[in-house]
């Protein structure tokens, strides 16, 4: 079975605290008739601190969609390489061992995808497949794990790299005075995460099954409205109550594989907000403590969109993992309303040695047999997975 290995996660060096967020809301939306509601909603998020990709004063300005998207591309190219290198190292693999890159992001747009730049710059093979996913929002982290699982099952022995790059602060809209937008200004944070799914060997979650579920007629509950100023986040008041409809989908998938969704050893759940976690805990009959990794991500980083489930997995690794064979569940939720669900078991198989010319070697052989091509060296990895990535990376 394919194994989801230890992720690497990085957050930007700039921060905004809960107190700063509330102060800004009072200043920016003074006199707004729904300001008290927005303040109450922001106060209930449980977010203590978030990381943002630009200093706060630049974040609050809107230079236009073109400039913002240029910032997205530059910051992605500066911050992704280090996280990818650490994820490969965690899995005991090199860049040339990767057969498919699944890149998920909903906070900027590039065509070709960043995957093409990664292949040309970071030492991946030229025949490496590319699967960019841009429109599943927060559910894309779960979808990436599921598509990596599917690929490795269809191509035995293959390895997949997942990269989630979310700069939610670049979607700040200063003129949007809807309550949903005001809430999102106090909820979302920025992060980059990566993880490898090994086709053979590895320590982590042995992926056994996956599934998806769409809440009928909920397309407009979470959405982007694309306007001249960029992406405007739309959040319907019905969203917090969706766990009543999604919890049965999690239970049903588990039951298909003779598992009890209420009795798993670990849960890696998208932290869309505290009520999402509270309600899912209630409807599944799971103690609140079992969602501690997701709650910690929400408190320390905010909702980091598709990167949440990977950061929750990082925290599970940091806690020491689980006993071999312990079963668990991963679930990402996003627009649609969509759920992407994975079932797996903890395994501690030793990874195979990395390929001789893996990540960081700086040399890649041309597939046509030409002389090796020199690629840029990578920056040294930070001391911990949560260390901020310098903005002075390769751009």
How would you summarize the topology of this molecule?
Blueprint: E1 3-4, E2 8-10, E3 14-17, H1 18-28, H2 35-43, E4 49-52, H3 56-59, H4 65-91, E5 100-104, H5 114-121, E6 129-133, H6 140-154, E7 160-167, H7 179-184, E8 190-198, E9 203-218, E10 222-227, E11 230-235, H8 243-256, E12 266-269, H9 274-284, H10 292-301, H11 308-318, E13 327-334, E14 336-348, E15 363-364, E16 373-374
Helix pairs in contact: 1-2, 8-9, 10-11
Uncertain stretches of 5 or more adjacent residues = 351-395
Would you tell me the overall average pLDDT? 87
How far apart are the first and last residues' alpha carbons, in Å?
37 Å
Measured as a percent range, the helix fraction is: 25-40%
Q: Give me the Rg, rounded.
A: 20 Å
- Biggest sheet: strands, sense, closure? 10 strands, mixed
Strand content: 15-25%
Give the structural class: alpha+beta
Following the backbone from N to C, one meets helices and strands in this order, namely EEEHHEHHEHEHEHEEEEHEHHHEEEE
Query: Number of helix segments?
Result: 11
How many extended strands?
A: 16
**Quick one: overall form?**
globular
Structure description:
This protein is globular. It has helices at residues 18-28, 35-43, 56-59, 65-91, 114-121, 140-154, 179-184, 243-256, 274-284, 292-301, 308-318; strands at 3-4, 8-10, 14-17, 49-52, 100-104, 129-133, 160-167, 190-198, 203-218, 222-227, 230-235, 266-269, 327-334, 336-348, 363-364, 373-374. The strands form four sheets. Strands 1, 2, 5, 6, 7, 8, 9, 12, 13 and 14 form a ten-stranded mixed β-sheet that branches. Strands 3-4 form a two-stranded antiparallel ribbon. It starts with a strand and ends in a 21-residue tail after the last strand. Residues 351-395 have low confidence and may be disordered. The longest helix is centred in the first third of the chain and has 27 residues, at 65-91. β15 and β16 form a beta hairpin. With 395 residues, the protein is an alpha+beta fold. 32% of the residues lie in helices and 25% in strands. α1 (18-28) runs antiparallel to α2 (35-43) and α10 (292-301) packs across α11.
């Amino acid at each position: 079975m394919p194994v989801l290995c230890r992720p690497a996660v990085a957050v930007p060096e700039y921060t905004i605290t809960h107190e700063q967020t509330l102060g800004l809301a009072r200043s920016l939306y003074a006199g707004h008739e729904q300001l008290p509601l927005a303040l109450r909603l922001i106060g209930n998020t449980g977010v203590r601190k978030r990381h943002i990709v630009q200093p706060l004063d630049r974040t609050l300005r809107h230079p236009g969609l073109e400039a913002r998207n240029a910032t997205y591309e530059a910051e992605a190219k500066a911050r992704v390489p280090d996280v990818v290198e650490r994820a490969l190292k965690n899995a005991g693999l090199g860049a040339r061992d990767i057969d498919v890159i699944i890149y998920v992001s909903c906070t900027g747009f590039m065509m070709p995808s960043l995957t093409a730049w990664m292949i040309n710059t970071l030492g991946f093979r030229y025949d490496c497949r590319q699967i960019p996913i841009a429109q599943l929002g927060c559910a894309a982290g779960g979808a990436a794990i599921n598509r990596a699982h599917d690929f490795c099952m269809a191509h035995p022995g293959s390895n997949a790299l997942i990269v989630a790059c979310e700069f939610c602060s670049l979607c700040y809209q200063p003129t949007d005075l809807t309550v949903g937008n005001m809430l999102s200004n106090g909820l979302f944070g920025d992060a980059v995460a990566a993880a490898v799914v090994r086709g053979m060997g590895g320590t982590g979650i042995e992926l056994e099954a996956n599934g998806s579920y769409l809440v009928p007629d909920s397309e407009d509950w979470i959405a982007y409205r694309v306007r001249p100023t960029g992406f405007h986040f739309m959040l319907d008041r019905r969203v917090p109550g969706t766990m009543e409809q999604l919890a049965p989908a999690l239970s049903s998938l588990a039951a298909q594989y003779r598992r009890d969704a209420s009795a798993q050893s670990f849960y890696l759940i998208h932290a869309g907000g505290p009520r999402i976690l509270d309600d899912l805990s209630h409807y599944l009959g799971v103690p609140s403590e079992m969602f501690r990794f997701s709650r910690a991500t929400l408190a320390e980083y905010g909702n980091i969109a598709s990167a949440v489930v990977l950061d929750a997995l990082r925290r599970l690794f940091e806690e020491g993992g689980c006993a071999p064979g312990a079963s668990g569940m991963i679930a990402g939720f996003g627009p649609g309303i969509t759920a992407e669900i994975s079932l797996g078991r903890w395994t501690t198989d030793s990874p195979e040695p990395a390929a001789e010319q893996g990540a960081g070697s700086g040399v890649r052989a041309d597939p046509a047999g030409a002389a090796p091509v020199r690629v840029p060296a990578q920056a040294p990895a930070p001391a911990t997975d949560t260390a901020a990535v310098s903005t002075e990376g390769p751009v």
